[in-house]
Amino acid sequence: MSDRSSNEAHSGTTTHAPRGCVATAMKVVDADPEQIWRALTDPVLVEQYFFGTHVESDWQPGSPITYRGEWNGQPYEDRGTVLEIREPLRLVTDFFSPQSGLPDEPANHQVVSYRIQPIDGGCRVTVEQDNNADDEAAALSSSNWQTILDGLATVAPTA
Question: For residues 108 and 123, what is the distance between their CA atoms, to the nearest angstrom?
């Protein structure tokens, strides 16, 4: 992680601009911000809608995040860092997957931002993931995030 990101993580605020091609997905969820927050951060709930992924973190700025699971029949362990928390409205993380085949260097990490906006009838949940290799990779990531948000919308109302 760069010195800038490390300092920002400890302060709990970030000022980074998205890099490269950005994947975006959005879903209106019939739940309040606290329910959505629980669904984003509780490992038991995450596993129900995030392709069976088991996530571990204490969700404090600067803390590590580990994602474990199986994708296309192959086990994986991805990692990241909590960059920003504004519970229950915003979560920003750094993300790296060794399955990318790229070296684990800051330039190859992605930033994933979750924004929860209360609206009439629930909340608008938006996810952005930067630093995708190209437009095709961003489109695939957007599709995966949409699937995840569709699942989140079924879990969050009971969280």
Answer: 32
Q: How far is residue 124's CA from residue 105's CA, in Å, rounded to a whole number?
A: 33
User: What CA–CA distances, in Å, run from 39 to 3, 63, 81, 154?
Assistant: 31, 19, 18, 10
- pLDDT tens per residue across span 47-59: 999 999 999 999 9
For residue 69, the surrounding DSSP H or E stretch is: strand 64-71
Can you name the CATH fold of 3-11+21-158?
A: Alpha-D-Glucose-1,6-Bisphosphate; Chain A, domain 4 (3.30.530)
As separate numbers, helices (DSSP H) first and strands (DSSP E) second, the chain gives 4, 7
pLDDT single digits (tens) 14-67: 556 778 899 999 999 999 999 999 999 999 999 999 999 999 999 999 999 999
